[in-house]
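Long-time lurker, first post. I've been practising inverse folding by hand and with some scripts of my own, and I keep getting stuck on stretches where the structure tokens seem ambiguous. Below is the full token string for one chain I'm working on. Before anyone asks, I'm not after the true native sequence, just a reasonable design that respects the backbone. If someone could post their per-position residues I'd love to compare against what I wrote down in my notebook.
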């Protein structure tokens, strides 16, 4: 793909994601189809404010408008921050502070690690995090190799009734082994069954305010779904 060969982005999948989100212009015209022909003399431009540290940010960007997310001056808790895609998106859209939590270490992009708006907690399981001294307005969750069912109860104990929780559900980590083929959920019927089961569970603790399919697939092709949740009062 021309965007990769010209060094505008690092990978083909990243290029395809930006194109699908309508962030790429070729000769001044917005392009939304990855297979668009690009001449050798064509000018390719990508909005600078849309350059993020990881693919995760593009997933969040693809649903932010539909879920009516507003990060301006908000305190954000990023669970499973990793490289910092969600953190990056939140800061670039006005967040006052991001509390980034991850069980790993040395994963956060240097630009974010050195950002005064980021409070980084490495080698930290969200289930062991002390309640933030500042009230959290928005929680963003992107975890792998663990079910959201293991994470969300801990999150519920850290937030108030007005906190928005944006959880990205990865069906492959909510499924039983019989439903997974090399880490991928290929059967749409099985995927719907997994998501339905997750929704039945999550309603015990939270109100599902909205939900949206990610327009950017996972690295292996898994289709993820975002849920906008609010803590259910007892």
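-- Answer (accepted) --
I ran through it position by position. Result:
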């Amino acid at each position: 793909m021309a965007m990769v060969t010209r060094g505008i982005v690092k990978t083909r999948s990243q290029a395809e994601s930006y194109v699908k989100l309508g962030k790429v212009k070729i000769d001044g015209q917005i392009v939304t189809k990855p297979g668009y022909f690009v001449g050798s003399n064509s000018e390719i431009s990508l909005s600078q404010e849309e350059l993020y540290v990881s693919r995760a940010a593009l997933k969040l960007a693809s649903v932010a408008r539909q879920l009516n997310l507003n990060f301006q001056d908000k305190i954000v808790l990023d669970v499973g921050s990793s490289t910092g895609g969600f953190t990056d998106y939140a800061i670039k859209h006005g967040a006052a502070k991001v509390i980034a939590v991850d069980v790993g270490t040395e994963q956060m992009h240097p630009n974010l690690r050195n950002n005064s708006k980021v409070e980084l907690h490495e080698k930290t399981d969200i289930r062991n995090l002390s309640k933030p001294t500042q009230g959290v307005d928005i929680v963003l969750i992107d975890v792998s190799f663990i079910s959201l069912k293991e994470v969300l109860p801990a999150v519920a104990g850290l937030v108030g009734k007005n906190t928005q929780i944006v959880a990205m559900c990865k069906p492959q980590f909510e499924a039983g082994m019989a439903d997974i083929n090399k880490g991928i959920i290929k059967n749409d019927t099985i995927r719907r069954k997994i998501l339905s089961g997750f929704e039945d569970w999550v309603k015990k603790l939270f109100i599902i305010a909205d939900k949206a399919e990610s327009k950017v697939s996972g690295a292996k092709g898994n289709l993820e779904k975002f849920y906008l949740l609010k803590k259910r009062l007892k």
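A couple of notes from the structure itself: The longest strand covers residues 206-213. Residues 2-50 form a domain with the Structural Genomics Hypothetical 15.5 Kd Protein In mrcA-pckA Intergenic Region; Chain A fold (CATH 3.10.290.10). Happy to go over any region you disagree with.
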